[in-house]
Automatic annotation (TrEMBL):
This is Uncharacterized protein. Its cofactor is Mg(2+); Mn(2+). PROSITE patterns: HELICASE_ATP_BIND_1 (PS51192), HELICASE_CTER (PS51194), PAZ (PS50821), RNASE_3_1 (PS00517), RNASE_3_2 (PS50142). Residues 36-257 form the Helicase ATP-binding domain. Residues 716-807 form the PAZ domain. One of its GO terms (biological process) is RNA processing. It comes from Naegleria gruberi (Amoeba).
């Protein structure tokens, strides 16, 4: 039998300093671990096992297999791994058969167990050592000092990926000398994590070369020697995390993230299908409860006193918002503790002068729970926390409790408040926070004490992952988790058999209720909403007896502190470069069908071709010529097609996408390598559209139609995603027919990259040459955008590479493709998917509206972060906002014509407020169709990502209201009447028809007219003069009378211009907004600015004074008119004409364009034109946007001389 020192890896170094007689008990592998072992031997795998089910043991089993079996694909058998000895100690008769003599080269290869942080190394090193020490293995030589060298004295090392990268770059070790790479916490393999860099630079670039490539005699391929790649094993409990602000579509999003993880590690995700039930028996699922509290305190005086106290002392290190949040979370005492901690001051005594009722003496002490519950200075949330701990402490002997809080200051404040209660002093409450504030040694001490003397621990997220304490029986989540990963990790700390997991949530916060609901939407998280008193009864009825740990129990736990993550560390989020998206159906389903989703791109340059593009990954065959693309060349990014061809393309792509989602296969299109290819040939021709071989489109569409016979047409992509159907797509392949890379005009084609590279000699690799040499201006987020030119009757397909300057670099190169990674690759939904979402929304809301274009509807529900162009819902939202206010104002005035302004304003605010529109959007489930990227926390149809809880909450509420206004703007773009009708259908407007064919402001107009004329004798003369100035003859002169009467003239019957001004303000805003929307391509903020320039008080006052309208106004004697009053008269004039003409927009347009507003309007329009031209010089992309909107820019107006500045048509569209 080998002694322990024989496992030493370096001369004089011992792997374990404990006594040789120490008995190490190693648990035998379970059936589900052996199942995953067999899967891992067959190929690269990412094994998913919950916390506490033996992921490290699985890695040890695979290492054992590779060290003792020459052929690593031949499984050594369950009996071997269940035995207490490895093959080193088995007699020759009992050794499993081998395939020949030992492979000496293999015996010198190294096994790397990679951990994401330095802190995890020691813990995993000890676990691996204990396994092989118990089995008395002589072949395993583990390295203790974590430094990589080329000696033969070790073959297993626990390391961080960055250390391995440094060793490979310094050529201390060669990649072909690696036998196995184990990625612990494999979910970290995202973005530019060292896990990804290692795989990209050394694994993917050394994959076997496709034999067909060798025929091209590339120099860089001739020098490339194939190497034997290491086996890959990934270990994780949470392969992909998602925000708890998810929609029904996030199941699909989670699957896409798993696919990215598979792509990065070149491995398949594995779970124990056959022994799933056995695995579940070893997963500790604590009883989960949610307890509600209220953050709305009836005592506002303490909060106001705190704000005054903060303002008086000018505490710069803490904001007023933080003061308010701390008060609602912890109460007055907790807020003062936080101020004293941050500002390092004793604030309790000085605060009494600001709030004398606060009469607690220092140090504050509580002697009973009744005293705590009756205190007005402790929040409802903290009282519930005290009550829980007190009940648990009374019921359970030697209880162990962990409380997780999000903020460090909250942790410190809670600890101090616990120490104020005399009964909790024996619990020895301690804090555990991240290494940015607390040293590793201090953390280790706290963990050791928690296993022995400390019974109550308050921790930040530093303790959510890695606290391996089996005797913790109560975990309280003080702040609700933001992601599924946080929830699973914190719940995993409750390791006792009878443990409970309690989540506190704010019943007044709708977002927290949504998060709590989503938290319980999986098998492991059945959370029961429990009242506090009921939960206390549960705790009392079930006692949990926990004995103190012995010193032998404590020592192994000290190393577990290394697993703590930093408190300030931000969870890495996935961006998506789709390669394999594997089917995750039942294990016995071997008929996995492979497809490719493709998009057509083309240029009008010398090299015409058809390439394929999808989802943020662009792939090119190596033999093609690569050229840098420049933003100024964007006009080359068009394909012009006829209307029928355009419709055929859209139908083709939508049907193809539906077939793919429904797992249909066209066997004739499969290639020998098992991938699904569809090559679209290009035809040489003079016309841009001739590059597409339309016969292929027609043929393929027919075959798709035949495969679609049994497919229920009523089911949409959205329906499938809601049902959780996986996307059975394996590879996204880009191929070309004519092998030519597209090259726009006006670029330097004097030499190709390959020719330039060959001139460099052999001192640099072709891959590194391309990385250093080329920075391509390209954006592959949106495969294809479309627009329509009314004048030339052409549909234009816009190629996104030419729309937005995005840095693009080569990510890695393998076999037939170079994969490029953009700096803006977050958008997950392709154009086809977005169009399908828009299609579903149209069927739900606009089933009979033929004028609704799917491309426009897609823009109207798309957030600005999801588009490459400035085409998103914001312009529609701006326009829809004015239409909605116009409709609401008329609805109120026509239904209640005799009310005062206070009533009007209150009614208007209630109808158009964000809260009212948000409720409407929620009722209609509008957000199920909202398209955006991963940047915000609210519901999306793409992927969810949180910047911060506060920002997410604000954004989510605002966006829901914006989408309603955007849809109104979309419909109103075609006709204002249609926009008003949609507002009426949405129950925002009640009156069925807006009719003002008679005077509406008084039920007895003739009587009111006599009173006005008797009271103001000159009113008729001034009204006639007003008609002459504006060139409009009033049908009912009373509207002119009302316009000229200031509210200071008390005639009674609400006879003044206020109601007309209320209407005119809405009409003027709508006219100005419509003019900008249909004539200029301005973004939302620019339209706000220019609208304000026209409708502001000073501008309207100048018009009134220029035409002496202010002198026609009747006011109270000696009253000096202000600019606001004069501008109100101008708005009242517009309202008077609108109502008198029965809302005839031709009459309103004449007033604006041909009357007194015309000079101001001309100057205003010319100012916008000048601004746009100056902006175009700075951003050529805006020129492209103008081309896209050419339909609306060619709109004809009555005064043609005023509107001669419409954009000239681009020659490409001629």
């Amino acid at each position: 039998m080998l002694s322990q020192p024989s496992l030493s890896t370096q001369t004089g170094d011992n792997t374990n300093d404990s006594n040789n007689n120490t008995i190490i008990t190693i648990e035998k592998p379970r059936a589900y671990q052996l199942e995953l072992l067999r899967e891992s031997i067959d190929g690269n795998s990412i094994c998913i096992l919950p916390t506490g089910t033996g992921k490290t043991l699985l890695a040890c089993l695979l290492i054992d297999q590779l060290l003792h079996q020459n052929d690593k694909k031949e499984y050594m058998g369950d009996e071997y791994f269940l035995s207490s000895k490895c093959s080193c100690c088995i007699s020759d008769q009992k050794k499993p058969p081998t395939n020949g003599p030992p492979d000496k080269k293999k015996l010198t290869k190294k096994i790397f167990f990679l951990v994401p942080t330095t802190a995890l190394r020691k813990q995993q090193q000890e676990a691996i050592f204990k396994y092989f020490y118990k089995r008395e293995c002589s072949k395993m030589k583990i390295k203790k000092d974590f430094t990589i060298d080329s000696s033969k004295s070790w073959n297993v090392i626990v390391s961080t990926p960055q250390i391995l990268l440094n060793a490979l770059q310094s050529q201390i070790i060669s990649f072909e000398d690696i036998l196995l790479l184990v990625f612990d916490e494999a979910h970290h393999a995202t973005k530019d994590h060292p896990y990804v860099k290692l795989m990209r630079d050394y694994y993917h670039n050394n994959k076997p070369i496709d034999p067909s490539l060798l025929a091209y005699n590339f120099n860089f391929l001739k020098d490339r020697q194939p190497i034997e790649l290491p086996k890959i094993l990934g270990l994780t409990a949470t392969p992909a995390s998602q925000s708890l602000y998810k929609t029904s579509l996030n199941e699909h999003t989670l699957f896409l993230r798993k696919a990215k993880l598979e792509f990065s590690l070149d491995a398949s995700i594995k779970v124990p299908y056959d022994y799933m039930e056995e695995m579940k028996k070893h997963v500790n699922n604590p009883r989960q409860h949610s307890v509600a509290y209220s953050s709305k305190s009836e005592l506002i005086e303490p909060l106001n006193a705190l704000k005054t106290f903060h303002s008086y002392h000018n505490f710069r290190d803490i904001s007023v918002d933080d003061i308010e949040k701390n008060y609602r979370e912890l109460g007055l005492i907790g807020s003062l503790i936080i101020i004293s901690l941050i500002c390092e001051l004793d604030v309790f005594e000085s605060f009494k002068s600001f709030y004398p009722i606060f009469n607690l003496n220092q140090p504050i002490e509580f002697s009973s729970m009744n005293e705590i519950n009756s205190s007005p200075f402790i929040s409802d949330k903290v009282k519930i926390l005290f009550d829980l701990v007190d009940t648990y402490e009374n019921t359970n002997e030697n209880m162990r409790c962990i409380i997780f809080a999000e903020r460090i200051v909250h942790v410190k404040a809670i600890v101090k408040m616990f120490r104020m209660y005399r009964k909790f002093i024996p619990l020895n409450c301690k804090e555990l926070i991240g290494s940015s504030v607390m040293s590793r040694q201090a953390q280790a001490t706290v963990v050791k004490e928690f296993s022995h003397t400390t019974r109550l621990l308050v921790a930040t997220k530093a303790g959510e992952e890695g606290l391996n304490i089996s005797k913790c029986s109560l975990v309280v989540q003080f702040d609700i988790c933001n992601t599924t990963r946080e929830h699973i990790q914190s719940m995993g700390r409750a390791r006792h058999e009878l443990s409970r997991y309690v989540v506190l949530y704010d019943k007044d916060d709708y977002s927290q209720i949504i998060m709590l609901t989503n938290m319980g939407n999986n098998e492991r998280s059945i959370i029961v909403d429990t009242a506090l008193e009921e939960l206390k009864e549960y705790i009392k009825s079930e006692k949990v007896i926990i004995t103190n740990d012995t010193q032998e129990d404590i020592e192994p736990l000290i190393s577990s502190i290394e697993n703590l993550s930093d408190d300030e560390e931000i969870e890495k989020k996935d961006t998506y470069i789709p390669k394999p998206i594997r089917y995750e159906g039942p294990k016995d389903n071997n008929n996995v069908k492979l497809f490719v989703s493709q998009m057509i791109i083309n240029s009008n340059g010398k090299e015409e071709m058809t390439a394929l593009l999808t989802f943020g990954e662009i792939q090119y065959p190596f033999e093609v010529t690569m050229h840098p693309l420049w933003l100024k060349l964007f006009p080359c990014g068009f394909i012009t097609v006829t209307k029928s061809e355009y419709e055929k393309l859209i139908a083709f792509y939508m049907r193809l996408c539906r077939i793919i989602y429904n797992n249909y296969a066209l066997k004739d299109y499969f290639y020998g390598d098992g991938r699904f290819y569809l090559v679209l040939p290009s035809c040489r021709g003079n016309q841009p559209r001739d590059v597409i071989d339309w016969n292929v489109i027609y043929t393929f569409e027919k075959e798709l139609s035949q495969s679609e016979k049994d497919y229920p047409q009523s089911m949409t992509i959205l329906d499938h995603l809601r049902l959780g159907v996986r996307v059975p797509i394996d590879y996204f392949i880009v191929t070309t027919y004519n092998k030519d890379f597209y090259a726009p005009n006006y670029i330097d084609e004097s030499s190709t990259p390959l020719e330039s590279f060959e001139k460099q000699g052999s001192t640099i690799t072709y891959q590194s040459y391309l990385k250093d040499r080329y920075e391509i201006m390209c954006d592959s987020n949106q495969p294809m955008l479309s627009a329509y030119s009314l004048k030339y009757h052409r549909y234009v397909m816009l190629i996104p590479e030419f729309c937005k300057p995005t840095s693009l670099r080569i990510d890695f190169i393998e076999s037939l493709r170079a994969v490029f990674k953009t700096s803006n690759e977050g958008t997950l939904m392709s154009l086809v998917e977005q169009t399908l979402v828009a299609h579903d929304l149209k069927n739900q809301m606009f089933p009979s509206c033929g004028y609704i274009n799917l491309s426009e509807l897609r823009n109207a529900i798309t957030h600005r972060t999801s588009q490459n162009l400035d085409t998103n819902y914001e312009r529609y939202e701006f326009f829809g906002d004015t239409i909605l206010k116009y409709a609401v104002v008329l609805d109120i005035v026509l239904r209640f014509p005799f009310e005062n302004m206070k009533f009007y304003n209150e009614e208007k605010t209630a109808k158009v407020s964000n809260s009212n529109l948000r409720k409407l959007a929620q009722k209609l489930s509008i957000m199920d169709f909202f398209i955006e990227t991963q940047y915000y926390h609210h519901n999306v149809a793409g992927i969810a990502f949180s910047k911060s809880e506060q920002e997410a909450s604000v954004k989510g509420k605002k966006v829901r209201a914006d989408i309603i206004e955007s849809l109104i703007g979309l419909v109103g773009k075609h006709s204002i009447e249609e926009g008003v009708k949609l507002a009426r259908d949405l129950k925002l407007v009640k009156k069925q028809n807006f009719i003002a064919d008679k005077f509406i402001l008084n039920s007895n107009p003739e009587y009111v007219k006599r009173i006005i004329e008797n009271t103001i004798p000159d009113i008729e003369k001034n009204a006639k003069e007003l008609e002459r100035i504006i060139g409009y003859k009033f049908k009912n002169i009373l509207y002119a009378y009302y316009t000229l009467i200031h509210p200071s003239v008390d005639i009674g019957f609400n006879v003044n211009y206020e109601t007309l001004e209320f209407v005119g303000d809405a009409v003027l805003d709508l006219y100005v907004s419509r003019t900008m929307f249909h004539n200029f391509y301005l973004d939302q903020s620019e339209m706000h600015t220019f609208r304000s320039n026209f409708v502001r008080n000073t501008a309207l006052e100048k018009i009134a004074k220029d035409f002496r309208i202010d002198q026609l106004l009747f006011v109270k004697k000696d009253l000096k008119l202000k600019a606001k009053s004069i501008s109100d008269v101008m708005e009242a004039l517009i309202g008077a004409v609108a109502l008198d003409s029965n809302l005839d927009w031709d009459k309103i347009t004449d007033l604006m364009e041909l009357s007194i507003f015309s000079p101001k309007l001309r100057d205003w329009l010319e100012g916008i034109e000048t601004y746009e031209n100056e902006k175009l010089l700075k951003s050529p992309k805006q020129e492209l946007n103008k081309v896209i909107n050419i339909k609306v820019r060619l709109k004809k107006y009555k005064n043609k001389d005023m509107f001669k500045f419409c954009l000239p048509v681009d020659p490409l569209l001629a």
